[in-house]
Amino acid sequence: MSERYVVGVDTGHTGALREADHLLRAVAAELGLGAEAVGCTHHVRDGRRPHTALSFALPSERAARAARQWLTDDASSETGAPLGVAFGEDRHGPDELVAGAARAAAEHLARTGGRAVLYPGAGALTGVLTVARLLEVSAVDRVAVLGSPEGASPEAKLVTREHVRPEWRDGRLVLAAMPAAGGTLVPFEVPNPTPCCADH
């Protein structure tokens, strides 16, 4: 999996992560990215308000430049909303959004940050899998279990809940998991979190 060509995009999205996932998938579809693509969300805490930016790893410099062109020309004109786009030293858009896009691209390129929504093998992570199988069929490098320094046993069963979002940590794509009923594991991130104060 090569991440030498990474484009960062910042729309200033302040909604829920599932909305950011939808936005990321929509942009990836418009860019024509295939199953080998890696697309991530990134928390941006700089600027006026916290929000989510996106990053996409592309297979070549040509593909990255084409994506940058589409994002700066077509996407901006279709939505009418400002976008920040960053590819290498190339920047486009309002300063605050460009800063978020550049940060997202830099984290993804260095593999030090980013929550992967699209990655090779993501579509195969459904139902219940052993940790060994998950590592075999996907780009996930490691399963870290909360409260367990040695990580997950290869034989441990992981209930995916059809929502597996690993994160880049120290150059590796790591899935945070936690113990669940019956000795199984589940991804730490829940698919549909209840918004704060939803019952008020």
Distance between the termini: 45 Å
C-alpha Rg, in Å?
17 Å
Molecular shape: elongated
Largest sheet: 6 strands, antiparallel
The main sheet orders its strands as: 5-4-1-3-2-6
Separate helix tally: 4
* Structural category: alpha+beta
Secondary-structure element series: EHEEHEEHEEHEEEEE
The proportion of strand residues reads 25-35%
Q: Segments where pLDDT lies below 50 for 5+ residues?
A: 196-200
Q: Share of helix among residues?
A: 25-40%
Mean pLDDT over the full residue set:
90
**Quantity of strands, as a count:** 12
Description:
This protein is of the alpha+beta class and 200 residues long. The chain has 4 helices and 12 strands. A 6-stranded antiparallel sheet has the order 5-4-1-3-2-6, sandwiched between helices. The chain is elongated, with a radius of gyration of 17 Å. The protein starts with a strand and ends in a 13-residue tail after the last strand.
Task: Give the SSE layout.
Blueprint: E1 5-13, H1 17-31, E2 38-44, E3 51-58, H2 61-79, E4 84-87, E5 90-92, H3 95-110, E6 115-118, E7 128-130, H4 131-137, E8 142-145, E9 157-159, E10 167-169, E11 172-179, E12 185-187
Parallel strand pairs: 8-11
Antiparallel strand pairs: 1-3, 1-4, 2-3, 2-6, 4-5, 7-9, 10-11, 11-12
